[in-house]
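can u do me a favor
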């Protein structure tokens, strides 16, 4: 373990929705948690929540956080230059720091379209979008760097995730939801709590080079999820729109490019992980009390 501290220490590189959720769980377990953000107001909010906030452009502070970290979670999306978090490895090498576990958050977009078929971790990758292709490269770069430095890196491929303040229930209540129907289109999703439990299951049983799909058990069409959510809330369905409608964002169009079912058997077998919310029904039902 690299940290001189007596308790586990997590460095979250990119403290967005997933990163903050993982950091909060680590804090609840009594860990020390560093979290990076380039925005000063965001760093203030992290400090108020118990994190040790770090500006990633401050190389000295980032290197110090890396030296103390027993675990590192990288959630920042890759750009044209690759994964921004990989630069932190140079600080680890220079400081002779060797974390017990590094987790990289990727996306099921690396599989591309499977025309409704199943996607497994060992399948050939065929990303259909620029963002997906960048994820493929970032995964490869992380695994190559890990082998070269003897680090324990795991890759986690996530579908669309949801949780408090980020879900179809709130969008329906705020009249921001749209109903898109695409025949034979299906995909998985995952509750943020199940993402976090999968990450910590991996920390407890790290496997160098491990790649895991963290998803629910129930791939479903998006329109069926929207219909169920509207019925649960007793609100009208949102307006139905075509994918080429100007009101549909580019991000949403990309979301509908792929149709696939994501297998999560490896995470269950190797990590002993099970999603607490095996389908959107259980996951959304658990969020009803959080609605304002």
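np, heres the sequence
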């Amino acid at each position: 373990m690299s940290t001189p501290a007596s308790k586990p220490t997590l460095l979250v590189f990119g403290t967005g929705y997933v990163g903050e959720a993982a950091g909060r769980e680590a804090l609840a377990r009594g860990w020390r948690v560093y979290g990076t953000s380039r925005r000063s107001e965001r760093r203030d909010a992290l400090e108020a929540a118990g994190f040790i906030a770090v500006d990633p452009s401050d190389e000295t502070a980032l290197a110090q956080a890396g030296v103390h970290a027993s675990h590192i979670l990288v959630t920042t999306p890759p750009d044209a230059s690759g994964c921004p978090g990989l630069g932190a490895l140079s600080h680890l090498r220079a400081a002779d720091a060797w974390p017990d576990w590094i987790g990289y958050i990727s996306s099921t977009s690396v599989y591309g379209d499977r025309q409704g078929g199943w996607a497994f971790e060992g399948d050939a990758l065929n990303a259909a979008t620029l963002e997906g292709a960048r994820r493929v490269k970032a995964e490869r770069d992380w695994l190559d760097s890990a082998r070269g430095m003897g680090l324990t890196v795991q890759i986690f491929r996530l579908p669309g995730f949801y949780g408090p303040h980020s879900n179809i229930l709130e969008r329906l209540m705020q009249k921001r939801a749209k109903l898109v129907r695409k025949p034979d289109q299906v995909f998985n999703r995952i509750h943020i709590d199940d993402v976090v439990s999968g990450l910590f299951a991996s920390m407890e049983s790290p496997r160098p080079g491990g790649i895991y799909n963290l998803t629910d058990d129930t791939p479903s069409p998006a329109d069926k999820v929207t219909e169920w959510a509207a019925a649960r809330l007793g609100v009208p369905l949102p307006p139905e729109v075509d994918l080429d409608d100007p009101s549909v964002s580019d991000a949403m169009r990309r979301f509908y490019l792929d149709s696939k079912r994501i297998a999560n058997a490896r995470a269950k077998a190797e990590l002993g992980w099970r999603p607490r919310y095996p389908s959107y029904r259980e996951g959304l039902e658990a969020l009803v009390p959080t609605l304002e």
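DSSP finds eleven helices and eleven strands in the chain. hope that helps!!
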